[in-house]
Predict the 3D structure of the following.
Amino acid sequence: MKRALITGLTGQDGSYLAEFLLDRGYHVIGMVRRTSTLNFERVAPIQDDIEIVQGDLLDETSLRHIMREHRPDEIYNLAAQSFVQTSWQQAVLTGETTALGVTRLLNAIQQCDQDVRFYQASSSEMFGKVVEVPQTENTPFYPRSPYGAAKVYGHWITVNFRESYDLHASSGILFNHESPRRGLEFVTRKITYNVAKIKHGLARELRLGDLDPQRDWGFAGDYVEAMWLMLQQDEPDDYVIATGETHSVQEFCELAFGMVGLDWREWVVQDERYMRPAEVDLLIGDPSKAATVLGWKPRTAFPELVAMMMESDMELVGRQLTRPA
Ligand code: NAP
Ligand code: F7E
């Protein structure tokens, strides 16, 4: 039985990846950090099938301990301070976790078991103010936030450890991927959850920032398969994972409101508080290397993704309404 360690188990991607690996017969070890209240909501249905271990990307000793005690064959480093907006307010913490955290984990691997296969969750935010359209594995980086800058560091330290120590370390440059399990602060889920509240009469408006940015949005459930495929290759490498389509925040609003018979223009209010000091205007990835080498293709089209999230949030808000006081 193969053993996989997932950092960031409690996040959106961690939960989908854990399900994916359990289905393939893996022993899944999920790293979680200590919190005063449990936040296992996303993994609740599979919690008993996973070995949960405590560790923190800020604490290298905890990572070495996990390596020695649990001897994983594959490590998926999904843990990060992942919210771009917060990265301006907490730039140092973002760097400690999202950048140096990768080095701490790679150090632990290098010292404990160099045969481990390692996946780093890199991001399209590294392309930032894009210098090429569409973006490929060879497009130069131009990050536009402390988060983007931290991910660039995490990406290059992964490449460096691969080249320095011959580690099987791969980096997936994933474009935005969403799901009903997306955090409520990210724009897609903020939209679908609030549209559901408006439709149920629980909210009167939706306050958003810039409606013009365009993103290449895919479904998280499709993207975790690509992470796994990267670690099954004979040679480690870097791959862009994307749909090859781009849509604006406004288009997302139009679709989501339209799905429940509402006109977005009557409900959306623009609010300075959600504008960013520097914006990423346009992201669109070219996933052809992943298609050719990994045989990976996205399965969920954009309207399907919006519909999946809308249906889930309509049901969730409906349940909240009918719950006895
Ligand atoms: P997410 O939902 O924000 O999950 C982040 C996870 O990291 C959570 O489990 C969180 O734990 C954990 N974490 C944060 N700080 C930690 C620390 N110091 N030590 C250990 N764990 C820590 O993110 P996601 O959307 O699943 O994304 C997964 C990864 O892919 C992240 O690295 C993200 O930056 C990257 N990425 C995401 C996208 C996307 O569109 N989703 C695209 C490209 C790259 P708590 O639950 O305790 O907070
Ligand atoms: O913003 C605009 C905002 O926060 C998308 C993370 O998973 O994907 C994610 O980063 C766009 C931006 O995601 C609001 O300005 C407008 O242009 O959903 P988001 P993100 O910043 O693209 C990348 C690939 C990652 O790696 C990250 O970890 O939407 N926008 N109004 C808004 N965004 C938010 N959050 N809230 C608004 O009210």
Q: What stands out?
A: The pocket of F7E (ligand 2) is lined by residues 82, 84-85, 123-125, 175-176, 185-188, 190, 208-210, 213, 215, 249, 274, 276, 279-280 (CB under 6 Å).
